[in-house]
Specification:
elongated, single chain, 65% helix, 4 helices
Length: 98
């Protein structure tokens, strides 16, 4: 699906998008990936600090795994259809009440 979107953008803008993507240097891709992973590392440290305040102790690798898996399921399950109540508002709570 993503490849189709890239090809559609290429047709609309009259540009070869894949050729432009391959012009990006591997060093720039590495730094982009490094910045992406830094977010997970910082969030893992934040999780450790919050749990320490609450009286729990967790090691870094468990916190990192928890953040990666949690973000994965959040990103890929966030587009599911939600039930609506009689007033037309989304029901985020069990039982449909606020």
């Amino acid at each position: 699906m993503g490849l189709l979107v890239i090809l559609l953008i290429g047709k609309i803008t009259d540009t070869n998008v894949l050729e432009e993507i391959f012009k990006i240097s591997p060093l720039m891709m590495f730094f982009g990936f490094l910045i992406f992973c830094t977010g997970y590392v910082v969030d893992s440290i934040r999780t450790i600090i919050v749990l320490k305040v609450l009286g729990y102790k967790i090691n870094f690798f468990d916190a990192f795994y928890n953040n990666v898996i949690g973000c994965f399921f959040l990103k890929y399950n966030s587009f599911r259809r939600r039930r609506t109540t009689a007033s037309g508002l989304s029901s985020f709570f069990p039982g449909g009440s606020f």
